[in-house]
Amino acid sequence: MPSFKKCPWTPEEDMQLVNYISRYGIWNWTQMPKHAGLSRTGKSCRLRWMNYLDPQVKRGNYTQEEDEIIIKMRQTGSGWSAIAASLPGRTDNEIKNRWHTRLIIKSANNMEQIVSEIDTLTMYCDYQNNFDFPEASMLEAANEDYSLSSHMLNTGTSSNDVIPPTFGTSADPHVSFWREPFVLENVYDDIDEYATYVDPQFGMPNPEDWFGEPFNPYYDML
DNA sequence: AACATGCTCAACCGCCACAAG
DNA sequence: GCTTGTGGCGGTTGAGCATGT
């Protein structure tokens, strides 16, 4: 695990950056810190301005409408920057934080999401067993989405309740599932356990029903 | 009151795309 | 076509605050 010291911006540094940009504008992030007398990288300056100092940045107090937009766009695969573009005043970083701290649970609180999780997993099975699937990024997405499941399973519980396994993280008792050679039986084992945590009101479908039918939305692409 | 745990968010990193030379 | 510089994106981390025990 990398260990690096975080170095918060001081009010003086903020002032320097704001003064410089208000006077000369943004012309080159790499050169700017030198001219502004800041001992920061251009990237750091850019991030500080974009996420914090820019007067157009809105802070806190997300409306329900904003949350819904984030959830919808995220579910359709939009990137953070695309979502930020749809929410004036919100930054990608802020939206990302919002997602990971609040919305990921809300998002999972519907059946469609659960089905999507299963579909993603099914695609993964198909890939591993039958195809040399070229879209490596899809696998990463599958892993991420499956990780999402653990958050989903928390729906309706408080932080003090028993937390189901956290798939795909260092604390994940199932982490070996993703790192070992793929074995279909492992999927069933995990799905079974996964299903036991789902709120019964959702009427979790039998995983066998889902895996019994060949399913791969990417067949047409192959 | 003291400690443990969880949550939030600013800040960093690595990687990628693109443009210019 | 290759190299280099720059900006942008997404993932991750750590500090500090809030809350619970």
What does this structure look like?
It contains 11 helices and no strands. With 222 residues, the protein is an all-alpha fold. The radius of gyration is 22 Å and the shape is elongated. The chain starts with 10 loop residues before the first helix and ends in a 10-residue tail after the last helix. The C terminus is likely disordered. The structure holds a DNA duplex (21 and 21 nucleotides).
Tag the structure with descriptive keywords.
3 domains, Arc Repressor Mutant, subunit A, DNA-binding, 222 residues, 58% helix
Order of helices and strands: HHHHHHHHHHH
How many helices in DSSP terms? 11
Helix content: 55-70%
Share of residues in strands: under 5%
What is the overall silhouette?
A: elongated
Compact description:
The chain has 222 residues and is mainly α. It has helices spanning 11-24, 32-36, 42-53, 64-75, 80-86, 92-107, 111-130, 136-152, 175-179, 184-197, 207-212. It folds into 3 domains: 11-41, no CATH class; 64-107, Homeodomain-like (Arc Repressor Mutant, subunit A, Orthogonal Bundle), CATH 1.10.10.60; 111-221, no CATH class.
Topology:
Blueprint: H1 11-24, H2 32-36, H3 42-53, H4 64-75, H5 80-86, H6 92-107, H7 111-130, H8 136-152, H9 175-179, H10 184-197, H11 207-212
Helix pairs in contact: 4-5, 4-6, 5-6, 7-8
The chain binds a DNA duplex (21 and 21 nucleotides) through residues 1-9, 28-30, 41-44, 46-48, 50-52, 79-81, 92-94, 96-98, 100-102, 144, 159-160.
